[in-house]
Structures are given as structure tokens and as C-alpha cells.
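Intended use. Records like the one below are meant for learning the mapping from a protein sequence to its folded structure. Do not use them to infer anything beyond what is encoded.
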Amino acid sequence: MAEKLHEIHVEVATEYLPDQSEPAAARYVFAYTITITNTGGVPAQLISRHWIITDADGKVQEVRGLGVVGHQPLLKPGEHFEYTSGSALATPVGTMKGSYQMVAEDGTQFEAPIPEFVLSMPRTLH
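Structure written out for the chain above:
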């Protein structure tokens, strides 16, 4: 099987931020750290992002924008870029998924899917 030229691997780690959240006001804030690795065979640049954020009530927010945290990283094969961002939900649990729009050095445009991940407030014991 031929090597995939245009392939990006996305990993996500999430964290609930109690100091920024206000459960009484239906505001739950989460941080997520994303590592984007170019597992393909040609350099590729992240141009834009598209997020679909869904809370536990089924309310969906779509977010589109250029780059990530103000960057449009160019990744050579094997290189990775890591960043942390955040999201606020009206419920203690939700999901995020989406895609990064990439352009390879050879001019090919392709999407790197971001697998769905869960944002969840940890259960607290009193």
C-alpha cells in the first residue's frame, strides 16, 4: 500500500476548569490541549478550523476561523504542533468534534478530521 501523502493525526486531552466555571449560572469551562502531527509524506499547513460543539441539552454551536490560537503552523512530515484552548458550555457535559483545513506543499487541500471528544465535569464527592 502506498504511503499517504496527506495525513494528519490529532490527539486531544481535556480538563475541567472549576476556577473559571459557575455551575449556579450554568457556565462550565473546559480547556483542551490538541496535538496535531503530520503523519503524511509532504509538508502541510493548517489554514483554518471548524468545530461542532454540542452540550448535554443538544444545543449546537459551530465555530469556524483561521488558524488555531493565532497560528497557521506549517508541519513537515513527523513534526507536531500543540496548543491549548478552551470552551464554555451551559451543561456539565458536552462534546466537540470538527476538522482542520490543511494545504500541502504540493498544493493539495485536504481536511484533517478531529475525532469527537467529551468535555465532562468530574463528579465531586462531598
